[in-house]
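User: For my dataset I need records formatted as: sequence, then structure tokens, nothing else. Please produce one.
Assistant:
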Amino acid sequence: MTDFSIASFNVKNLIGPDQEYYRFQSYTPEEYAWKADWLAEQIQTMDADIVGFQEIFEESALRDVIAQADEDGIEGNAAHIPGANKRYRRKAIFRKLAYRPYTDAALAVALNVNDGDPGQRRPGVAILSRLGFVGEPEVIQDLDAPIDIDFGPMGAEGGGSFRLTRLSRPILKARVPVGNHVISVFNCHLKSKLGEFVRPEDGSAPSEVDLTQYDPVGRALGGVRAALRRMAEAWVLRRAIVAELKAGYPVIVMGDFNDAEHSTSAEIISGEHPFKNYAWMLRHDAKTGRDRYSDDENTQIREDIEAVQLHSAERQFVRKSARDMIYTSAFGGVYESIDQIYMSRHFLENAPDSIGQMDYFNALNDHITDGSHPEAPYNKLASDHGQIIAHMRLKD
């Protein structure tokens, strides 16, 4: 048996001090020191073998945080783990509480090709792996060929289309050796729900951002643009996932989906849910009302869908524990999970090609608040996302 853990961590704007990442936003040296210390503590608590980070502006800042986590974690081991002179030294609890440093871990960072000047920076993503990588990690952002989504079925002239040539943030793919297997790991940060507005040719601010002249219709159109982009990015990720599955690799996808589990974009990533029985369904090429799929075709269709379907780690945990207490973000009084870990059926205990299972899932979300209560003020230095960790076990 081989145990490993995988986590997703949106660190919220990780960049060194005195650097303007968004307009008029930067960290003083004191604020950065606080943030780095908090992030390092969260990394120690997660203690995950594979970590996907989002909102990375600087690789050097991330490396500093990891180094601080190692320094503090090693110091904590020396202080708290019983030595050889203690009779209770073999108790499993102390071994499991030991922090394992990332001294020899592999780190892949995908910076954002949309990154700009101070005040107009754009974040990237990273994957940290104690288990190393197989081959070079791959960055997906600038597309080799534009994606044209044609709405032709609505009419050849009036259907319209949508074109995507570049993702708002990179998707990072790394193949990770775990036990006797190689797992394809994807880390993503899809477009947020914040509206996208077209900047005038003279470079001035879009009229929709002037809230003193509130434009509800224009701002709604900005939301349409954001949603279209997020769903198109989800499809790009889905295409890459299916390619890895068809190449024979188990797949785990993690990151900030900026949408809940049952959203359209999340369902694009995870794939369709099969019907229980296609034998009652009218065939695609039916000539009469009696033309249905056969039992053999039903079996084939279900297998084709299930073979490339992904499954939510959170949902598996909730199903096993009969309770639902997971959330990773809060805004306007709404607590929901927009950070996800999805996995192929290779990690379902009773699946035909199972190589293991998820034993446990947890979220670090005690720091999450929407700032609406005076006793729980919003802290801009901590992350505004919870961290999620899936604890896996392979059969080997």
